Amino acid sequence: MIVILNNKCNLNKDEFKAYLKDISEIKTKIDLVLCPNFLNISEFKSDKIILGSQNVSAQNSGAFTGEISANILKSYNVKYCLVGHSERRKYQQENYHEINQKIKKLLESNITPILCIGETKEERDSKKYKEVIKEQLLSAIKDLSLENQKKIIIAYEPVWSIGTGLIPTNNQIEEIFSYIKSYIMTNKILYGGSVNETNVDTLKKINLIDGYLLGTLSLQEK
Ligand code: 13P
């Protein structure tokens, strides 16, 4: 079981120090991966929690002002990195090609990509959701060897569920997980979107679930 904590654009330096102290006290046997903002990555210290990143450049290190490459992340001991989060697809217009490039750069640096995919409310209502998920998935793994494809963790995060309190039924999630497995067989699959202490008991019963991707809950006091 793996749980990814996505801090998003939250926690200044002092807040992060207090937060890290707080979550370091959690006793758990699961793999807990923390994805702070880029600056807080350099403040991270823990022997229990694993370090992740929320983003990476699609470029190698070099003349790319404002970018952080996979090689730089690696030097900070980053082990996992989110790619294609719906907020980046929406606000930074991150496209299929960039997402595919980012995955390649991460794999070259031995950082595990966590590919986020999921449909909007309109896409679900118009029954286009499977088509959308297939396109997001296949474009992201384009030109990757089977061996590299297997290294990617897939996070199913329906856009309509993120930060809304709405979650799909277990049947709806299982349908998507099986669909994902029909294209990319051996990968770990996570669910993300409005996961909280109450609904996690229901989500735990999902067939094929390997863990969760948490936004709001990652910031709550323990
Ligand atoms: P919430 O848990 O706030 O819905 O956010 C989910 C998410 O976007 C994690 O990446």
How would you characterize this protein structure?
This protein has 222 residues and is an alpha/beta fold. 37% of the residues lie in helices and 16% in strands. The chain contains eleven helices and eight strands. The protein has helices at 13-24, 38-41, 70-75, 86-91, 96-108, 121-125, 129-140, 146-149, 170-181, 200-203, 216-219, and strands spanning 2-6, 31-35, 50-53, 80-83, 112-117, 153-156, 189-192, 211-214. An eight-stranded parallel barrel has the order 1-2-3-4-5-6-7-8. Strand 7 (189-192), helix 10 and strand 8 form a beta-alpha-beta unit. The mean pLDDT is 96. The structure holds 1,3-dihydroxyacetonephosphate (13P). 1,3-dihydroxyacetonephosphate binds at residues 6, 85, 157, 162-163, 192-195, 213-217.
Walk me through the topology.
Layout (H helix, E strand, L loop, with lengths): L1 E5 L6 H12 L6 E5 L2 H4 L8 E4 L16 H6 L4 E4 L2 H6 L4 H13 L3 E6 L3 H5 L3 H12 L5 H4 L3 E4 L13 H12 L7 E4 L7 H4 L7 E4 L1 H4 L3
Parallel strand pairs: 1-2, 1-8, 2-3, 3-4, 4-5, 5-6, 6-7, 7-8
The protein binds 1,3-dihydroxyacetonephosphate.
1,3-dihydroxyacetonephosphate binds next to β8 and α11.
Indicate the structural class: alpha/beta
The best one-word shape is globular
What strand line-up does the widest sheet have? 1-2-3-4-5-6-7-8
Order of helices and strands: EHEHEHEHHEHHHEHEHEH
Number of strands: 8
Instruction: Classify the oligomer.
Output: single chain
Number of helices: 11
Distance between the termini: 19 Å
Helix content: 25-40%
- Poorly predicted ranges: none
